[in-house]
Every structure is written in C-alpha cells, then in structure tokens.
Amino acid sequence: MVLEVRKREDRKTNRVKKIRRKNLVPGIIYGPNTEPLMIMVEKPKLEAVLAHVSETTPITLKITDGDGTVEKTVFLKDLQRHKVNDSVIHVDFYEPMKGHTMHIHIPLHYVGKPKGVEKGGLKEIIHHEILVEALPDKIVEYIEVDISHLDVGDVLRVGDVKFPEGMDPLFDDDEVLVSILHKRAEEVVVEEVTEEVEEPEVVGKEEEQEEGEEEKE
Fold first, then answer.
1. In the chain, how many domains are there?
2. How confident is the model over 159-191, as pLDDT tens digits?
C-alpha cells in the first residue's frame, strides 16, 4: 500500500487550520530511531488507503519536500476524527527500527463451527486480537484459528495456537481465547395458583333473628 504525503514545517494551530481548509490532513511520523517528522496528506487519498488497511498493514509513504522524495515503511498508529462529522483530522504513523522487533495487536479470525455448538453449547470469545512481538517483515494481517474441534466444556488457550514463524505472543500460554459453554438451563415458569377463599358461613345468625321475631309476636 502506497501513500503520497508532503513534509510540513509549521506546527502552529492557525497553520494547521489552514491546512485542513485546503482538504489536507496534518500528520506525524515517529519511531524509536526516527526524528518526529510533520507531514500533510490529501484527505481523499488518505481515506482511500484507510479503507484497505489496519494497524498491521505496512504502508509505504512517499514523502516529498524541497529536496526531493524519500520513502519510509510505516504502520498506522493513531487517527483523530472530528467529533461531529467523524472526518479524519490528524493521523499518526509509526516507523519501526529495522532489524528490531515491535509489539503489535494482531486480529484473530476464528473459523469453523465448534462441534460443541452443534450440540447446543454456546461459543464465548474472550479475545478477538492478541498482542505479539515480531519483526516488521513478519507481521501478518490476521491469524486464522480453527475452532471446529472444540466440544462443550472445551477451551482454546494461547498455547494451543500455532503462530507464524518469527512471531511470539505476549500473553501467557494458559490465557483462554475461546470457550464452549454448556447450554443454559431453561427457566422454569411457575404459574401462580390463586385459591378462591370462601367466606365462612355465620352459624346461628338466622336462628337468632327468627327467635327475636317470635318474641315480638
């Protein structure tokens, strides 16, 4: 993936606002062996690249200044977006040191339907990505993990995953990535039975009334 950018000198706030009004996005390149370099890039070109990259995608920046053009291989590090319209207003690129490893989060793509799910179990994904250490040229877009063999009650741990050569996970081997849970017991609905309570019959009340009427006679 290639992106053309231009070097910029002035970091004042009013200058940055002028850049944005020209449909340009200010940005910066930095790294362990790189002096921070301020850049600007045409917004349409940046958005076109952003639609196809993630933080694991190496990007070749062609940087133009008064002395010509230089190229740097970088990774997308951070994006700032407008609070209202969500447009990109600033971009950070990270340039790793050649020959040195870097720490980066790699997405995990789980494939296959677990046999435990076929039996009615529930799949629970604990981690959708994993932090790894690798040389820049060993970084991949994602790691595909087959989970079709997992049965009810099984778990997939970091130690169960085969990582690409030259890539080391920074999680403990016992860390759980996916688990297949037992199906939740169905809730039993208890119907409330309303008992009809009959009013007690008052014994002797009518007899007393009859006796009173006889005495009057």
1. 2
2. 999 999 999 999 999 999 999 999 865 443 444
